[in-house]
Structure formats: structure tokens, C-alpha cells
Amino acid sequence: MAFSANNKHEYSSDRSVQERLLDSAEELFCERGFDETGIRELASTAHCNIAAVNYYFGGKEKLYIEVWRRHLRILRESRLNSIESVMSRSDGQPCLEALLRSFANAFVGSLIDEKKGPRFIKLMIREMLDRRLPGNVFFDELIIPTMNAFSDALMKICRTLDESKAQLVIISFIGQLLQTFHVKTMFEQIDNPELLKFELAEALDHIVRFSVAGIRACAEEKNQ
């Protein structure tokens, strides 16, 4: 499809308005929550007409979902790329430790990203306190694609692992990553020299090595 100069200008303007609305909505939803964020304030912060919220997104509820989808797409692609980068290596013999390490770095990296991380965590806290997101969005956009790709990769590397075991392994591994991130964040807010101090990289290395041993043990159970 060919675009005229006017078409290109209109398309660019549309994208600009949508991005401004998404950026403004993300900021306001994080700071004030869904109920305390009004359409008029959203439009004013985004420097656009009030009607633009309905025109581009069909209302505040759908705008909220799109704010989430934008974050979830980034997380999904980062995690899928971390798996693919290991599984597509030319030697054809992907390493279990390399897979877990690559995924762990992508998973935690998104949470500590100075630009996106704090916003996503605030958004998550708001959603946990006042659920507004349809359950299928989180599953369809992030959890199912990630679980499927990670599970397939694990079963290719550890051929005696079945799908149910692979999924339990993934849940355990991600749980360790989340808990480590939360504990580190909590400890950093408390000025107490007696508390355990650790470097995140060191903690991730421990989780990877610990999980590799556990996964191999699970895989060996099939052979006994």
C-alpha cells in the first residue's frame, strides 16, 4: 500500500497521540491507580483531545489493558530471545546451565531496568491491590508463550523430562528468581549491617547452579 505525504503525516500523528496516551496512562495508573485516574486528566497529560481516549483505545479500561500489553510484549520478547539465543547455537548441543543463565539474566534484567523496571513493579502492585486486568491477558501475552518455549527447550536438553516435570521445574526456577529479587529489594531499604548482604549476580549464579543439579536429578529419576 502506497502512502502519500499526507497519509504519512497522519499516520505519524496517530502514532504520536497513541504513544503519548500510553505513556501518560502508565504514569498515572502507577501513581494514582485506575479509579483515581480520570479521562480528562489522561488527555490533558498526553496533550490531546478527550475524545482521543475513546477514538484510539475504546475507553479507559481498554487503555489500561494496552498499557499492560506494551509491558508484557517487551517481557515476552526478552525471555523468548534468551531461550532462542541458546537453543539456536550452531553446535546443536545447547547447555542446560547456559539456558538457565540466559533466562535468569533476561528475567531479572527486566525488573532492574532503570527506565522500565520501577514502572512495571508499581503497575504490578496496583493490579494486585485492585484487579482490573482480565486474567487471560497476562497468560496469553506472557505466561503461556514463555512456558511453552522454556518447556520445549528443557525437554530437548533433558530428554527424560516430561512436560509436567518441565513445567514444575520452570515454576520453581522462576519462583527462586522472584524471591531473590524481592529479598534484595527489601534488604536495600533497611539500614541493618547484620542482614545478609549479597550481590545479585552471585545470587543468580547460585540459583542457576542449584537448579541445574535439581533438574538433572529429576531427569535421572526416569532412568531409575
Brief descriptors of the model:
224 residues; 9 helices; mainly alpha; 77% helix; globular; Arc Repressor Mutant, subunit A; 2 domains; disordered N terminus; Tetracycline Repressor, domain 2
Q: What count of structural domains?
A: 2
Rg over CA atoms, rounded to whole Å, is: 21 Å
| Chain-averaged pLDDT | 86
Order of helices and strands: HHHHHHHHH
Within CATH, the superfamily of the largest domain carries the name: Tetracycline Repressor, domain 2
Largest beta sheet, briefly? none
CATH hierarchy, class of the largest domain: Mainly Alpha
Q: Please indicate the percent range of residues in DSSP E strands (runs of 2 or more).
A: under 5%
Fraction of residues in H or I helices: over 70%
Q: What is the second-level CATH architecture of the largest domain? A: Orthogonal Bundle
Structural class of the secondary elements? mainly alpha
| Uncertain stretches of 5 or more adjacent residues | 1-12
Number of beta-strand segments: 0
Shape: globular
Q: How would you characterize the overall build of this protein?
A:
By secondary structure, the protein is mainly alpha-helical. It contains 9 helices and no strands. α1 (5-32) packs across α6 (117-129) and α4 (60-87) runs antiparallel to α5 (96-112). It is globular. The protein starts with a helix and ends with a helix. 19% of the residues are buried.
